[in-house]
Amino acid sequence: MRNSPLTARIAGHFGELIQGRIGENGPVALLTLPCPDLCVTAQFQPDRHLRLFSQQRLITPAQARTFLTGLNGAFGRFRLHAQMPAGGGAGASTAALVALAHLACRDVTAKEIAQACIATEGASDPLMLPRPERVLWASRRAQVLAQLPPLPRFDVVGGFFGPPRRTRPVDHNFADVSDLVARWQRAPDLETLAQVASLSAQRNLALRGPAQDPTESLAKRLGALGHVIAHTGSARGLIFAPGTVPPSAKSALRQSGFRQVVQFRAGSTR
Fold it and tell me: Fewer Cβ atoms within 10 Å of its own Cβ: the N or the C terminal residue of the chain?
């Protein structure tokens, strides 16, 4: 009888509370919004050959080979399934690579996994870190630029609007957000968090599109404190104080063209 496959579950994120250049010519950096409700699940059975089954095409077999070879990982049969769409800005490809590392690599550090993600894809979300929302992350360098204060508690209701938009590592066309990071480093309360996230989203949409994005108007209509987006994906969400999401919110998003609508709690009391 064959051994049961090993399994791993890696949580994704739901866009970025901040993303942009740190200074006009500085690196592209981000502050991620973790989302425990969206994850990648992976199964692994050791084998001499590498076989990858991923109906959603989260990563290619060539990328899996490059990644595992760089970490001296084991080959075998991998089966990947994501609860979020590829190109949605929810970290599907990074989560898939991190899952491979957890299943097939021994004694690797988060830093080594991050560097292998960069070598494989050219960009990375900080999903291999234990507290990804507590760092300012240079996504093209796999580098922590600064430690950040904890997030206050809040609720998010959102979904995916428009076509998938995969990250292109050579894309550095982002707004300068160094002023927003400076505000964040002063430990924002929830209203400030929502304001800063909304400003980052507004700057990104003004520079990169898409035009006529309905997220901000939905936030105002439903009484949200602000909104959050995936700056290179289709995830869009509304920020509410805990327990204040109106009952009509999910249906309003669906009527506006949002797909796979979710609601989740973010932040902590610490």
Answer: N
Encode pLDDT of 155-196 as tens digits.
999 999 998 888 888 888 999 999 999 999 999 899 999 999
The pLDDT score that the predictor gives to residue 86 is 92
Task: Report d(CA 220, CA 42) in Å as an integer.
Answer: 39
**Does the pLDDT at position 269 exceed 60?**
no
Please say if the pLDDT value at position 101 is more than 50. Answer: yes
User: What's the DSSP call for residue 176?
Assistant: B
* Look-up of token digits 């599907």: 92
pLDDT at position 1 is: 37
Strand-strand pairing, 235-240 and 143-147: unpaired
For strand 51-53 and strand 135-138, is the pairing parallel, antiparallel, or unpaired? unpaired
All structural domains of the chain with their residue ranges: 6-146, 148-266
CATH classification code of 148-266: 3.30.70.890
CATH of 6-146, picked from 3.30.230.10, 3.30.1300.10, 2.60.40.180, 3.30.413.10, is: 3.30.230.10
Kind of pairing, strands 51-53 and 76-82? parallel
178 residue type, one letter: S
* Alpha helices (H) in 171-233, listed in sequence order: 178-184, 190-208, 215-221
